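Input/output pair, single chain:
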Amino acid sequence: MDQQAGDDRIGSILHADLDAFYASVEQRDDPSLRGRPVIVGGGVVLAGSYEARARGVRTAMGGRQALRLCPEAVVVPPRFEAYVEASRAVFEIFHDTTPLVQALSIDEAFLDVSGLRRLRGPALPIARELRRRVQAEVGLPISVGIARTPYLAKVASALAKPDGLLVVPTDGELQFLHALPVERLWGVGDVTAAKLHAARLRSVADVARLSPAELSGIVGRAAGHHLHALATGHDPRRVETGTRRRSIGAQHALGGRGTYAEADLALLALCDKVGRRLRRAGRTAATVTVRLRFGDYRRSTSSRTLPRPTESTTTVSDVARGLLRARRDEIERDRITLVGVALSGLDDEGVQLALPLDGEADPALDRTLDRVAERFGTAAVRRGSHLDRNWEPRSPVQ
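Output:
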C-alpha cells in the first residue's frame, strides 16, 4: 500500500513498525519457514507470522489454543539475542535517517523529519528510502505511517500492515479519523471500548460528536478529555528523543555477495559518515565496532577500544579497516552482503589535547571537510579511492 499525496499535504512525523517482528526474524534466518505459519514461543505465543495470524493466532494466546486454530504451524523457541541484534541494526537506520527518533519498543519508533526538507526532501521519499534500507540491510519488512501528528502516524502504520506505507494528508485528517472504529483511538483498551459501545459509540465520528463533559460521564474525566482531543484531530505530543544516544553507527548493503575490496571501500565512506555525525553531536568515541552480515544472514562483530576517546575520522577509519583486514580470508571465502561501523563509549567531555608525536590526525581538517559537506553535500569532497569505481556511497534518499 503506497498512498500518494502532494508534498504540501504531507506531515513530517513517521511511525515505523516492524511487521510480526520476532516471527519475521525467524523466517528471515530460516528460509524453510518463509510463507508458512510460524509461532514463536511454546506455552504462550510471543509472536505469530501473518500466515498464523490469518488463522486466528494472536500474541499472548495459549500455545495449545494457537495450535488448535492452526495445527500446521511451526513452533520455534524465541532467540532474544537475534531480535536485539536485528532491532539494533534497524535503529541504526532510523538514526541515520534523522536525529529525532523516539523508540516506543524494540520494533517501533517515531521519527520526526521536519528539519530535513531542504537537505533530503519531503517525508514521502524519506519513508520510502527507509523501508528500502530496512529490507535491503536487515532483511525485514517494515510498515510506515506518515502524518502531521504521532497519533495519526501510528494509526496509519497499523492500517498499512503488512509491509506497507500509508500517508494521512493534512487536509483529510478528520475524514480519515472519523471512519475508524473507537478501538483505534490511542488508549482505548477492552474496558474503555466496552464503555463506549454501551453508550452506542462505535466510530471515532461518534466520539467526536460528544463534548468532553459528555465523554467524561462515560469513561472518566481524564480519559474523556483525552479521547475528545484525539477524535477531533488534536494531539499535542511531539517526538521526544529522550536520553542521549549510546552509539553512532551506519551500514551499507553490498548487494549480492561483496568482496573484501568492495567492503573496504564501503567502510571508508561509512567512517566518513559516522565521523561527521560524531563531531556534529560534539562527542568523542572510545570504541570502534565493525559489523558484517553474510549471505545466510549470519552476523559477525569485532571491536577495538582506543587508548583515549577520539573524534578523528582518520583514527576511526584506521581502526575499522584493521578490524576488517583481520577477517579478510573469511570475507573472500564466504563473501558478505552488508558492512557496518559503530562508535560507542560516547563522551561529551571533548577531545583531550594530544602531543604531536601521538599520531592523532589534525581535527581542523575534519571540521573543514564537515563544513564543505554541510554546505555543498557529501559528494562535494570525496576520497580518491571512491573515484571511477563501481561502488558509490549512497545518499540518505535516492
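DSSP finds 16 helices and twelve strands in the chain. The longest helix spans residues 260-280.
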